[in-house]
Amino acid sequence: MTKRADAALIGAGPAGLAAAAYLARAGWKTVIIDKNSPGGTARQLELIENYPGFPDGIPGKELMRRFVRQARRWGARFVRARARGVRRRGSDFAVGTTAGNWECRALLLCSGARFKDLGLANEKTLEGILHGAFDEAPRLRGRDVAVAGGGEAAVHQALLLSRYAREVTLICRGPALKAMRRLQSALLRRPNIRTLTRSVVAGLRGKKKLAAVLVRDLKTGKISRLKTSSLFVLIGKTPRTGLSLFRKKSPGFFSAGDIHSGRFRQTAIAAGDGIRAAMACEKYLRGNR
Ligand SMILES: Cc1cc2nc3c(=O)[nH]c(=O)nc-3n(C[C@H](O)[C@H](O)[C@H](O)COP(=O)(O)OP(=O)(O)OC[C@H]3O[C@@H](n4cnc5c(N)ncnc54)[C@H](O)[C@@H]3O)c2cc1C
């Protein structure tokens, strides 16, 4: 049976949760659909130190728990399902999910961004190639692990891994890391992290599981073999725009958060953008009653 809402939101990360709380509080029947537990990427962050209002930082899980509580308090309905497709039905939208269909007057796409792939043939099939699996770190105690990337996400992950792993090798394409200075200083204080600049992952070896990473030195062209069963690929993000409509300007369709390509992807920005989209959506719902 198809269920109805005024507004349906796809993605319960900070953007979707902030938007859901806003719309539900404004009195609109709001449903928020996520294939995972609510909280998105932010939920996986051990400690968020730069969210305004928390001078000592706050674990991502706890911050997102508060977002969820706030949205629930105003009556937003949470659905655990993967959104499979979105279609226009007259002036409404039809959202197909793995747990049934929804019809709504307005749709907010807050599905975030996904980590880019390396573009290597066996990358999708080998076990041990990870992206944002931040909670994996404690399971890698005593192992040698590799991280590809030189930005904030990669350095953040290398620091986290260095607390458990024997050695962390950070493979960075550019001549220097791009992460903020504070993270780079922290990196220098960890003796078990080594950074290879001007280097890229040129190949992956292993049958079912990753056994080694081939690293190409871009200065010399030389390829070396790094024995490891875990490679974190954090070389940038690309918007999750798989669901249709995103590129078309469609009345009643809004999007917010990391899905907007751009360099500034942060929890507070996503939450603020969620509220911006919710306010535009509110205006649309009022005008189209
Ligand atoms: C390593 C790392 C460190 C970071 N550190 C910080 C930091 O210190 N401070 C900070 O402020 N920010 C940090 N961030 C950024 C922050 O996590 C993101 O900016 C924020 O989570 C984006 O929120 P969002 O709601 O746009 O997307 P997300 O949080 O990614 O949420 C998107 C949601 O959409 C869901 N979804 C996607 N497709 C579908 C579908 N088809 N059907 C149903 N659900 C779907 C996903 O399951 C997910 O829950 C960090 C990010 C990373 C990767």
Description of the molecule:
This protein has 289 residues and is α/β, with parallel strands linked by helices. It folds into 2 domains: 163 residues, FAD/NAD(P)-binding domain (3-Layer(bba) Sandwich), CATH 3.50.50; 117 residues, FAD/NAD(P)-binding domain (3-Layer(bba) Sandwich). Helix content is 23%, strand content 30%. It is built from 5 helices and 17 strands. The strands form 4 sheets. Strands 1, 2, 3, 4, 5, 6 and 17 form a 7-stranded mixed sheet that branches. Helix 1 runs parallel beside helix 2 and helix 3 packs parallel to helix 4. It is elongated. It starts with a strand and ends with a helix. The model has no long low-confidence stretch (mean pLDDT 92). The structure holds flavin-adenine dinucleotide. Flavin-adenine dinucleotide (FAD) binds next to helix 1, strand 2, helix 3 and helix 5.
CATH architecture title of the largest domain: 3-Layer(bba) Sandwich
Give the C-level CATH assignment of the largest domain.
Alpha Beta
N-to-C order of helices and strands: EHEHEEEEEEEHEHEEEEEEEH
Number of helices: 5
Hetero groups bound? flavin-adenine dinucleotide
**Total separate domains:** 2
Kindly report the average pLDDT value.
92
Q: Span between N and C termini? A: 24 Å
- Tell me the number of strands: 17
Shape: elongated
| Poorly predicted runs of 5 or more residues | none
* CA-atom Rg in angstroms: 21 Å
Strand content: 25-35%
